[in-house]
Amino acid sequence: MTSFESVSTWRQPEPEPTSATRTALIESVADTVNGVSRGRVRVAIDGRTGAGKASFGHELASALRRLNRPTLRASLDDFKHPWRDARERGYDRVSGEGYYRNAYDFRSAVELLLLPAGADGSGEVVLCAHDPLTGVDHRGTFVAAPDDAILIVDSVFALRPEYDAYWDFRIWLEVEPEAAFERGVGRDVDAEGVEEATRVRRDRYGPAEEIYLAEVGPVSKADLVIDNNDFSSPRMLPSVSR
To answer: What share of the chain is helix, strand, coil (3-state, %, to 5)?
Structure first.
């Protein structure tokens, strides 16, 4: 079954299965998502930085392909303004407030990714606007999404108002803040060093997430809430009524 992947150099590999419990949960979620529509479906996977969103997205996509659904994978991290834009225009994307307000390119995400991937969209989908590592502009790189394709997008802030109306299904991964912090530092320590990885999460990502949680209340918007504190034993939690 067809899989369409982002051209971004910022990728995480698909994890190996950790347990029968996790495999069963992923398959259950895939059954639910598969039942949303036989047309194109857009799925958001949200949660704190370090919650395991990218890994969950990869696993869910694999399970959906086993159900004979073509998948598209993307991250809203590939739909940010390039760093040079901040330098040239002089806006803040370094502090938590600045990162939350200014880093993301909402227009490109909606017009190039979310609208065309919808049931009534053109199907001509861009899976990466600007590579976050190289800064290369990929907004002219399209894939042709089949009529029954499922787009799976992992990102913090995925349920903020600028995106929320475009999702057909929303998943929140619940992880304790301390665990998410440790995972995020551990993921990036080889590339950034422990001091820088710690500083960025303490001074930028953490404060931005607190603004998001306070202003948007993303858990209340989720169709499915999953406790992902233990990778080997994730479990579904009661969703908060919208």
So the answer is: 40, 15, 40
Q: How far apart are the first and last CA of the chain?
A: 35
Q: Per the confidence metrics, is the pTM higher than 0.85?
A: yes
Q: Which of 48, 28, 32 is nearest to 219 (CA)?
A: 48
Name the token pair of 166: 């475009």
Cα 102 to Cα 85: distance, rounded to the nearest angstrom: 10
Select from 147, 142, 5, 13 the least CA-distant residue to 69.
147
Average pLDDT, the chain: 92
Q: Given this structure, which CATH class describes domain 3-237?
A: alpha beta
Tokens of 237: 């939690």
Sign of CA dihedral 124, 130, 131, 134: positive
